[in-house]
Write a structure and sequence with these properties.
single chain, alpha+beta, five-stranded mixed β-sheet, two-stranded antiparallel ribbon
């Protein structure tokens, strides 16, 4: 049996999405380690996997699991680490990759808090950063953000209504 017929579509692209997934412990060691070139290291890893599967880097998902095993998508841009839910559709927050180890530990704790809160149904409002219930506010969505009732009504709802999504 030709395995490529199972795993590849007619264009030679995979019928699956490769992911790079880190458990909580490994990710903590990476986060608290040397930062110089970390974003470039992830780019290189993505490029290598992309070349293997004939994909661009944007087709490869990088993930980290929290202590409960729930996975989150993340991306590193310079000194910013952005977190989304497992599908990449809901923004969870971002943390800074600071050179100061004390600040970095605080940012790691923030990331842990954000992921634990999301696992328990709590997200930060994308505008005021207040903790809100995800289920109660999930319809208050603009792009990947979720907004509290006040921020949604006072500002975001009007912006979203004007969006053409073209």
């Amino acid at each position: 049996m030709d395995i490529s017929k199972i795993f590849l579509n007619n264009n030679g692209k995979p019928n699956f999405k490769p992911t790079i997934s880190f458990d909580y412990y490994t990710f903590t060691k990476i986060f608290m380690g040397e930062l110089d070139g970390l974003d470039k290291s992830f780019e290189c890893l993505g490029d290598t996997i992309g070349a293997t599967f004939n994909l661009n880097r944007g087709s490869i998902s990088t993930r980290v699991s929290n202590i409960y095993g729930y996975e989150f998508v993340f991306s590193i841009y310079g000194k910013d680490l952005f977190l989304w839910d497992h599908s990449g559709g809901t923004a969870i927050g971002n943390v800074l990759l600071n050179d100061d180890l004390k600040v970095r530990k605080e940012q790691l704790n923030k990331m842990i808090r954000l992921t634990e809160n999301f696992t328990n149904g709590i997200v930060e409002c994308g505008l005021c950063n207040k903790n809100i219930n995800y289920q109660d506010n999930r319809s208050h969505r603009y792009m990947a953000g979720i907004y509290c009732e006040k921020c949604w009504s006072d500002k975001i709802k009007e912006i979203e209504a004007k969006e053409t999504y073209n």
